[in-house]
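We now fix the convention by which a protein and its fold are recorded. Think of the row as the fold of the chain written in a discrete alphabet. Here is one such record, which you should read through line by line.
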Amino acid sequence: MAHGEASIGELTRRIERGRALDLLDLRPADFENLVEDLLRSEGFDVIAFSRAGDRGYEFVARTPGTDNTPPIEYVVQVKAYRHSRVSVTAVHKIAQKVARAGGGRAVMIVTNGQLTSVAKRALTDLASLPESPEIRVLDGTQVKYLLLKHPDLVRKYGRSHYERGR
């Protein structure tokens, strides 16, 4: 098989994997579990909490750190929406909770969709404030891109998983 044919075959497989998992079809709890598994697969140490009680975030994920960089601890807020986007209110709430808690934690907001344009501007504004925690956002497009590297997760949470839960 020629190199070009192999590349086309890989592209076709990636497209099919992307179609096998529609993030909007997942129930919120399933999307939250997917995010935990995805972050673990990307090398994060995930500290999961009991689902009871609302801390304003779902769990904590820590980067491994290296000889040159210390680990970063993220407070992870998962937002699964079927017909709306992450609002400026949601961005401000999680940033305020993390800032009040202190401890040098950063924030990661992961959504199956997108942020509103106002929420994106708010992130830019917050980044300029010295007391604001670092805020990283993974939107639905970025989540799907990361999932292309993890076909096992696509199989686990794909259509067959969703249809079993119905």
Q: What stands out?
A: Confidence is low (pLDDT under 50) at residues 160-166. The longest helix spans residues 3-20. The chain is about 50% helix and 15% strand. Residues 120 and 136 are 11 Å apart (CA to CA).
